[in-house]
């Protein structure tokens, strides 16, 4: 992990992360479970028992998403508000929340980021009513207490390996955000931005900047 750096405007530090290949035991455990696809999830959501429930898939394994807590909900609302306000002035694409997305060549994985930006160019040929068979240009995941760090970073890898350019993992417990990209060796590169720092849209949303003091409460509201 590199030394933290601060210039009074951006506060961040680089985090070393190595990919972990799926173990044989994990593979066997996944095979032993009932595996799902995007299509089987869509079928489930059409039934009265499941149509109000939320799921995501990783490698065919289905995970149900529980209702979120107050701080998670507030962060999601505020993030989407800032994205939407920026896009009203800069017609670059669409902001979304909990939009179902899956890799174009992998129907065994389905994610639903808490916030996302998808450019107009990448929305062409995508359905108005349905999941998208592309990953968003920017995906935002807000960490829940039940999430492990490995789970959070696995999602970041899935987004980035399949078309996303930038992933933000929002960490409410730290009042900070992990900014994830792929480095030149296609490894996950993570930079932590603290509460006194600024998130940048980089090449994905040119000109977008968000001071984290506007995102996180000054006092504990949770």
Q: What string gives the helices and strands in order? A: EEHHEEHEEHEHEEEEE
Main CATH class of the domain at 68-214: Alpha Beta
The CATH superfamily of the domain at 68-214 is known as: tt1808, chain A
Main sheet properties? 8 strands, mixed
Low-confidence region ranges:
1-10, 22-32
CATH topology of the domain at 68-214: tt1808, chain A
Q: What overall form do the CA principal axes indicate?
A: globular
Beta-strand level of the residues, as a percent range?
Answer: 15-25%
Helix percent band: 10-25%
Give the number of DSSP strands. Answer: 12
Report on the structure:
The protein has a domain at 68-214: tt1808, chain A. The longest helix has 20 residues, at 70-89. It has helices at residues 24-32, 38-45, 70-89, 120-123, 149-161, and strands spanning 5-6, 11-15, 55-58, 61-64, 93-96, 115-119, 138-142, 166-171, 176-182, 188-193, 198-200, 209-211. It is built from 5 helices and 12 strands. The protein is globular and about 45 Å long. The protein is an alpha+beta fold. The chain is 24% helix and 24% strand. It has an 8-stranded mixed sheet with strand order 1-2-10-9-8-7-6-5, with helices on both faces.
Summarize the structure.
By secondary structure, this protein is of the alpha+beta class. The protein contains five helices and twelve strands.
List keywords for this structure.
single chain, 222 residues, alpha+beta, tt1808, chain A, 8-stranded mixed sheet, two-stranded antiparallel sheet, 5 helices, 12 strands, 24% helix
